[in-house]
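Supplementary notes for students who missed Thursday's class. We covered one full example, reproduced here. Read the sequence, then the structure, then the short commentary at the end.
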Amino acid sequence: MDPAARDRLLELNRRFYATVAEPFHATRQGWTAGKVKLLDYAPARRPLRVADIGCGNARFAVMLDSLAAPVFYTGVDAAPELLALARSHTAALAHVNVELVQADLADSGWIAGLGEPPPRFDMVVCLATLQHLPGYPLRAEVMRSLAELLADDGVLAVSAWQFLSSERLAAKQIAWSAAGLSPADVEEGDALLPWKQGAFAIRYVHQIDEDEMRRLAADAGLAVRSIYRADGKEGNLNLYALLSRPAP
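Structure (token representation):
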């Protein structure tokens, strides 16, 4: 993908979250079946060290609090509006110690914001986030950074929206001209989708299917432990992958 097209799409999504942070937060309260299942993969050690990359309103921290055991949680997001909502959303948690960091995954040095050298975590989650990074090289770069954060025996959970697998969602796509682009500027699986709840905005999204998820894992030197689908009206609108460092 041409760098100018990539930067245009990244800026589109930055504006998207600045515009719809409040209504987006309001729709991200429930515990979906796919995310609840992730709690079964959380390592048993305590305190548990968790990094939530692309944390949004830190919903996963609230879910971790249900384990009723000590957790050190680091949430990372680019949008200051969402991080402000995450602070209020997690203020009353009983068992989770929350640290929030503003960092843009599209910036190559984002991981340095977590410390030098970067800390290692027992569990790293990156949910519905890689799908908003245009171009395979950028997604692969971020996946390698996620692998760098993983403890030797830790688990990385990545999810991606399977919107093109749903006729209902695929029909909502908007013409590329709305972003000043053409189909020739983007990759297969890319789309523009509208948001119409409380405000109108457009965001870029890419469908990471199972083949691409496995390729991203392999390029980051990670092994696939499990893949499953869950969530949405159809019960299969999110693809979840559980990854780890290969056995020695």
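Commentary. The domain at 3-161+207-244 is CATH 3.40.50.150 (Rossmann fold). The chain has seven helices and nine strands. If anything here is unclear, bring it to office hours.
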